[in-house]
Amino acid sequence: QVQLVESGGGLVQPGGSLRLSCAASGFTFGRYIMSWYRRAPGKERELVASISAAGGSTNYVESVKGRFTISRDNAKNTVYLQMNSLKPEDTAVYYCKTEFGSWGQGTPVTVSS
After folding, report:
1. Are strands 34-39 and 45-51 parallel, antiparallel or unpaired?
2. What is the per-residue pLDDT across 74-107, written as a single tens digit (0 to 9) for each?
3. Comparing C-alpha atoms, which of 56, 7, 59 is closest to residue 35?
4. By the 8 A CB rule, do 109 and 94 touch?
5. Could you tell me how far CA 33 lies from the centroid of its own chain?
6. Sheet strand arrangement including 78-83
7. Separation of alpha carbons 61 and 32, rounded Å
């Protein structure tokens, strides 16, 4: 059974940093592209970042380029999202997603002073 468990969200001041983790189980993690999505209050869910199976290729939505970094550790079956220089508009629930469409439960991030 596929399971994705996100952690690391919380309340942070503008300009601060957070590192999200998504621990995966129930499938061969290292074979699949992994992605982070977010859903801000009152908005549609959007793709934030993706990383290839081996980790050599990444993609980001324009609004987070230069601030967020997606990475993965296939030995630990975990994908990460390092978020720096956070802005209030980054406030959202962040989800990880597998290439084949499984979702985690999400972890909330609030950026506020």
Report:
1. antiparallel
2. 999 999 999 999 999 999 999 999 999 999 999 9
3. 59
4. yes
5. 12
6. 3-7, 18-25, 78-83, 68-73
7. 20
